[in-house]
């Protein structure tokens, strides 16, 4: 099982209907949710609606802070690597960096999560 994240925008294409444009898509294993929680980014990633985060710009600061925590204490966070081997600290840091970069690139994009 995994968390699927999509950043999207609804674009007016000149007709009565708007078109949904996906700008970024990624997924990560649920096995890393404990690590995310300890870094303070669980809700921004898994449950953004609970912190009233609907657009990418709403979570940029939280992701920056969490990523800094992850990078500054790698040994602390590596203790939360899943024992089954599905998901690692190293891959999670890269994943968070990529998502943060996408949020900065598309700050007005809407966030959709599927858990």
Please render the helix and strand layout as text.
Elements (H helix, E strand, L loop, with lengths): L1 E11 L5 E12 L3 H6 L3 H5 L13 H13 L1 H5 L10 H17 L4 E5 L1
Antiparallel strand pairs: 1-2, 1-3
Q: Could you name the key traits of this structure?
A:
40% helix; alpha+beta; single chain; 115 residues; 3 strands; 3-stranded antiparallel sheet
Please tell me about this protein's structure.
The protein is of the alpha+beta class. It has one domain (2-114). It is built from five helices and three strands, in the order ββαααααβ. Strands 2-1-3 form a three-stranded antiparallel β-sheet, covered by helices on one side. α3 runs antiparallel to α5. The longest helix has 17 residues, at 89-105. The chain is elongated, with a radius of gyration of 15 Å.
Spans where pLDDT lies below 50 across 5 or more residues: none
Beta-strand proportion = 15-25%
Helix percent band: 40-55%
Q: What is the first-to-last residue Cα distance? A: 8 Å
Q: Spell the H/E element sequence.
A: EEHHHHHE
Q: Average pLDDT across residues?
A: 97
- The radius of gyration is 15 Å
Alpha-beta classification: alpha+beta
Tally of discrete structural domains = 1
Spatially, the strands of the biggest sheet line up as: 2-1-3
Shape: elongated
């Amino acid at each position: 099982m995994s968390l699927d994240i999509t950043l999207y925008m609804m674009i007016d294409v000149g007709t009565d209907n708007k078109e949904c444009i996906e700008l970024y898509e990624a997924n990560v294993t649920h096995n890393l949710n404990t690590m995310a929680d300890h870094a303070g980014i669980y809700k921004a990633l898994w449950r953004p609606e609970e912190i009233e985060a609907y657009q990418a710009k709403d979570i940029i600061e939280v992701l920056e802070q969490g990523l800094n925590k992850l990078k500054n204490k790698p040994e602390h966070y590596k203790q939360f690597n899943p024992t089954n081997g599905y998901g690692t600290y190293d891959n999670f840091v890269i994943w968070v960096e990529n998502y943060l970069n996408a949020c900065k690139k598309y700050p007005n994009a809407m966030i959709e999560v599927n858990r």
